[in-house]
Specification:
Elements lengths: L7 H14 L8 E2 L3 H4 L8 E5 L5 H9 L4 E5 L19 E7 L7 H12 L2 E12 L19 H10 L2 E9 L4 H18 L6 E8 L19
Length: 228
């Protein structure tokens, strides 16, 4: 990806906009796992694209819930089995594009460039779902030396706005045994709030292409393809 420059004044303004709409990490709803959101977008005939797919484990999970989805994957790791290894080769429109634990491995400029390119592959009304380590969790982000950019939820939302998206909502992921989860959610949460330390390890954000950015043009097709 190119060394794209970001208009930092626009990023700052976007962060303030997101902060006004979502003023506190503690107001963001808690879900158990990524599949809670993926399953809501997995309907028969839906086209899904996984970015940073790795071993494609979510393909198996999604098709266990809805076997009739159309799944494609993208990852730059050519030692894995993927449909695409270059973001510029991705074809077609998708109802859901999702990327978990990817954006933090890029610089902010690279992140914006990736998000802008993925707009071309979203179907009208399609949803982008991003996940990143929750920076309010004490060591979730810093436990991986390959991480490049830490994101608070409002900063991730701002990056999406700058890239031409409209933020629809945020979610925090936390799963544990029934008793431990209940204690954290209903009692321990007050100590966590006082310490400004969250127990949820991951933040998800859902977004759609902003109306003013919907003229991104047709999705690219590879040379010699039939233009599916």
């Amino acid at each position: 990806m190119s060394d794209l420059q970001i208009d930092w004044s626009k990023l700052y303004a976007a962060r303030n906009t997101v902060s006004r709409a979502f003023p506190s990490i503690w107001r963001i709803p808690v879900i158990k796992k990524e599949m809670d959101r993926l399953s809501r977008h997995s309907r028969p005939g839906a086209a899904l694209l996984e970015v940073g797919a790795g071993d494609r484990r979510f393909e198996r999970k999604i098709k266990a819930v809805c076997p009739d989805v159309s799944y494609q994957s993208f990852d730059i790791d050519r030692s894995t089995r993927q449909d695409y290894y270059d973001i510029d080769d991705i074809e077609g429109r998708h109802d859901l594009v999702y990327a978990f634990e990817v954006i933090e491995h890029l610089t902010p400029a690279q992140g914006v460039e990736m998000l802008r390119k993925l707009k071309r592959n979203l179907a009208p009304g399609g949803t982008l779902l991003l996940g990143t380590p929750n920076l309010y969790h004490p060591h979730r982000y810093f436990g991986d030396l390959t991480h490049v950019t830490p994101y608070k939820y409002e900063e991730l939302g701002a990056l999406l706005v700058v890239a031409g998206y409209r933020v629809e909502g945020f979610y925090r992921i936390f799963n544990d045994s029934f008793v431990r989860r209940a204690l954290r959610l209903h009692f321990g949460v007050w100590l966590h709030r006082w310490l400004s330390i969250d127990f949820a390890h991951t933040v998800l954000v859902e977004a759609k292409v902003a109306p003013e950015a919907e003229d991104a043009g047709p999705p690219p097709t590879m040379a010699g393809s039939d233009g599916r």
